[in-house]
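Subject: for your reference before the review

Hello V.,

The reviewers asked for a structural picture of the protein, and I figured it would be easier to keep everything in one thread rather than splitting it across files. Below is the amino acid sequence we used in the manuscript, unchanged from the supplementary table.
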Amino acid sequence: MNRTKLKIWSWISLLVGAVIGIGIVYSIEGMPVMPVVLGYIAYGIFLAIYLYFMGRSEMSDADERTNYNARNFFAYGSTMMLFFIGFIIYVFYMFGYESVEVGMLAIFFSVAFAVLILGSYIARKL
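And here is what came back from the structure prediction:
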């Protein structure tokens, strides 16, 4: 995929995500919509700045080493994530918890997703 198509699809995904997010927040009563709208506007500005300055060099984006590092990271990262999830479940079971709140699961998976994204970015640059 060339850079122009990547920029266009990034903006389309931003708009679709914004519409879905605002719809979810608006459908739940008592949730403010304006902070979500402002968050998407700020995210759109940062994405526009990033996409504008992305790809100014003539050097290729990736080679065999980049793909090898990314595959190894996702192989080891996903294995360690599954081990960590299993360990957390085991600890909760040993302490006698029979249920976990959905909000705590959402926070945990958000952090896990952020760690995998940051790690993939670092693995791609190595």
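For the response letter, the relevant points are probably these. Residues 1-57 form one domain. The chain has two domains: 1-57, 61-125.

Happy to draft the paragraph if you're swamped.

O.
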